Amino acid sequence: MAHTTQSERGIALVMVLALVALVAVWAVQSADEDWVSLRRAENMQLAAKTWLGVESGEALALRTLSADDHAYDGQDEDWAIEAPPFPVDDGVIAGRIEDANRFLNLNDLLDSAGNAQADVVPVFKRLFTRLEIDPRLVDALVDWMDADKEPFGSGGAEESAYVNRPYQIKNAPLDSLNEVLLIQGFDIPMLEELRKVAIVRPSYGLTALNINTAPADVLLSLADNIPQGEVEAMINARQSAPYKSIGDLTAAGMNSWVSRVKVGWLTVKSDAFMVRVEARFERARWAEEMLLARQGESFRVLSRRKASGL
Asked: Residue ranges of the alpha helices (H) in 157-299?
């Protein structure tokens, strides 16, 4: 009888220890779940802060652009001044406004009928050459967008070039600059170079190029044999005295190369702006890029995308 009692006590002790172990495991799991829940709630709160921060930055950019003088657009105006990041609570918001008319529009390669513009294609080939990108890729770019099935130029790439890819050739204008990565021959380093000089936006034949903001590579691509010294002098001059008209640029017989640029391409006014805003709160970060079109006194969002940062 004593042996049986001791066995029962042993079994009871084992059961108690097992129960304690189960309770301990449950307590640990419960604590982990509570921690995860708290962490998730905290992450959601931080994410909400970053989204609101980006929206606030975009609202401020819109307000700045709305107050802009429409007579001309240059680097001396308030929208062009890059303000330092400003702290908000336990985070920081940074933003930048960039003139979208400083870039060449890739969609300008085609006219309204969807055919390659013979006097625009050479401009992009000169630009690609300056960027050390094979200029024949302009042909592949035209084929990606045009509606016909005939390869364009020596570097054309029509349907047969995409038979081993999980998608077909588009035969329509570009929707974003990132789309060039789908086109035969393009890669990420090329895309990053293009971001410095090109943009994708709706085209109505020819997107005006602002001489007050366009970079040297863009200006030097507009015609053959443009004197680099003249362009560099022009860029230096506009820093302190932006051009108020195209006539200012050609005054006193200067910059004769302007007469060789396609009529209507150059301007001193911009009709679109790129707004980039980034918000950071502790470990949370959100950045957006928004393309705005100016329509009289108001602005319309042409595109919005998540950005990698400023």
From this structure: 188-194, 216-220, 228-240, 246-250
Residue 219: pLDDT above 90?
yes
Enumerate the H helices of the chain as residue ranges. 2-66, 121-130, 137-145, 188-194, 216-220, 228-240, 246-250
Which domains are delineated in the chain? 1-103+204-210+263-310 (3.30.1300.30), 107-196 (1.10.40.60)
Whats the size of the chain, residue-wise? 310
| Beta-bridge partner residues of 275 | 97, 290
So what's the pLDDT on residue 157? Answer: 92
- Tell me how far the alpha carbon of residue 275 is from its chain's centroid: 9
Digit-coded pLDDT (tens) for 45-73: 778 888 888 888 889 899 999 988 888 99
**Is 35's pLDDT higher than 80?**
no
